[in-house]
What we know:
By secondary structure, the chain is of the alpha+beta class. It folds into 4 domains: 1-30; 33-40 and 61-239, Biosynthetic peptidoglycan transglycosylase-like (Penicillin binding protein transpeptidase fold); 289-596, DD-peptidase/beta-lactamase superfamily (Beta-lactamase), CATH 3.40.710.10; 598-678, Sandwich (Immunoglobulin-like). Helices cover 35% and strands 16% of the residues. Helix 8 crosses helix 9. The N and C termini lie far apart (106 Å). InterPro entries: Beta-lactam/transpept-like (IPR012338), Glyco_trans_51 (IPR001264), Glycosyltr_51/Transpeptidase (IPR050396), Lysozyme-like_dom_sf (IPR023346), PBP_1c (IPR011815), PBP_C (IPR009647), PBP_transglycosylase (IPR036950), PCN-bd_Tpept (IPR001460). In the C-terminal section; belongs to the transpeptidase family. In the N-terminal section; belongs to the glycosyltransferase 51 family. Residues 300-510 form the Penicillin-binding protein transpeptidase domain.
Amino acid sequence: MRAGALAALALGLALAAGGRDALDGWVAATTLPPLTVATGTEVLARDGTLLRAFPVADGRWRLAPGPVDESFLADLVAYEDGRFYDHAGIDPVAVLRAGAQALAAGHVVSGASTLTMQVARLLEEGPTGTVAGKIRQARVALALERKLSKAQILDLYLRLAPYGGNLEGVRAASLAWFGKEPRRLTPAEAALLIALPQSPEARRPDRAPKATQAARDRVLTRLAAAGALSEDSARAAMREPVPARRRDFPALAPHLTARLAAAAAPGARIETTIDAGLQRAAERLARRAIAGMAGQVSAAMVLADHRSGEILAEVGGADWTDTARAGFVDLTQAPRSPGSTLKPFVYALAFDDGLAHPETLIEDRPVAFGSWHPQNFDHAFRGTVSVRQALTLSLNIPVVHLTEALGPERLLAALRRTGARVELPGSGAPGLAVSLGGLGISLEDLVQAYAALARMGRPVTLSALAGGAHPREGQLFGAVAAWQVADILSRIAPPPGGTPNRIAYKTGTSYGHRDALAVGFDGRHVAGVWLGRADGTPVPGAFGGEIAAPVLFELFDRIGAERAPLPPPPPATLILPNARLPQPLQRFRPRDAAFAEAPAGGPELTFPPDGAQVEVPEGGLTVKLRGGVPPFTWLANGAPVMVGARARESLLPLPAAGFVTLTVLDAEGRSASAQVRLTP
């Protein structure tokens, strides 16, 4: 008897060992479904909040969980799978309990499905009510437990659990039903997110609120009975109403976020420099700006920190869902005529070359450039004015004179050095009309060009991507010239209600009133506003000064405490009345209006050559010229460094390092320039 018992025991152990080995082999041979779960692309604001999320390819809203309320996770495990951290994928205790309850009641009373089994079903989207389906879920669950940690399994559940409609995962559900991230949940919210996946369609809050509330309250009751929640907290949570509707997902900066998402890999997490508060304010401002305007008028804005190059807000259109206004078109990227907003660059180049000074006198009279007879916007002429008045009043004749002296290619080269993409009409050969807006440039590129003006002539690449902004090489013009232009622009009268001297700004209106613009900057920020129709149809009565400038000033008002004053003049700035200027700077002498060649014998720099890198000895830089009529005036970055020189070789006191534009003027007002890089 004793030997027989021992033999039976040995046989039982052998069978158990064989069964264990067979089970191990069966689990090891399991073919697992793909464990990489696609999630939607996310674009984040500078503080990490969600600007916009995108669904996955099949249209489901499924997002990476991110931080999730620890209390919710504890309640989820307590409610769904109390021994989750102890079992190997199948809970034998739950199986025995469910079997006993079913035998006693004659029907299924409770399930034995673990969280790992639920993940197995969700990964394969398998059936839930068949024996074969349950066996498959059990097998996959056992295999998952061997391959993944408990945290990884729970993460898959948080990504895949269904929450009604095309919502999957706890984060998408929390955003859709509560309008918030799941990092902090109330007991009522947590209970709802636990209840919904059990029957996501039958318990949808927006379609079956009574069923939703009943299911949520059952979860609260059970959590209270288990001691996971106090009775008082459970009763208070039951009094909270369930959500009445599904909320829209965040969609701030829709044009920008769509552009960034299209350039990134699916499921990317894109960090930006956008300030969510400023972005909301800018979008509200854009909608208000077009309210009541006839036609399909839209608005676009760009606001950036020119010190860092970071874009803080960008509005591609007043309403991206409004098809009548072509709301889908990103008007920050569309090439449009800039109107008069390029005039400051002409003046800065002229100041830098020594062609003019803010107090230089210049003529505003009828003139012909070949067959072209430019007119001022109001068809009036002011006669002799100062350059300061010419820019302040945005007169056309003076700026065309200066453009003719500089050459229109010079303006285009300066714009391109800022990184701006410039489109020319027709053959592509630039004419004098480029200074009046006769080219195409996007609003974002125009604001980037103004950032260089705000940065004392140093260009910067603006970007909304974290880490994407960076300074550009070179110098458009000297700090003195940049400050002189900014000083003039800051004294332009603001629109009604605007604060005087708050910003340096310029407005523009394109031919036919197709585009109304205002661009400006203070000591830290630069911004641009555009209004018009996306299809380029004229908008009668649309002037940049009347409809765009007020919006620009309001946009700067939204900046709040971070606003910064414009900088003081550089030490080399020549602040003098006209009568005390060097003689060549007292009055601008244009070339012949019909593009005649400059008089022979003008000054020509022979050393240093344009674009050279020159080592500067302690005593200064030796410069040489030929031609011209003495006496000569030498300027560095628009500021005189030597006046009345008669020799054709001079020693100029210059800084030991950096970019500098050297200009020499002769007694006839003729000039020559070279941009060089000085090294110590």
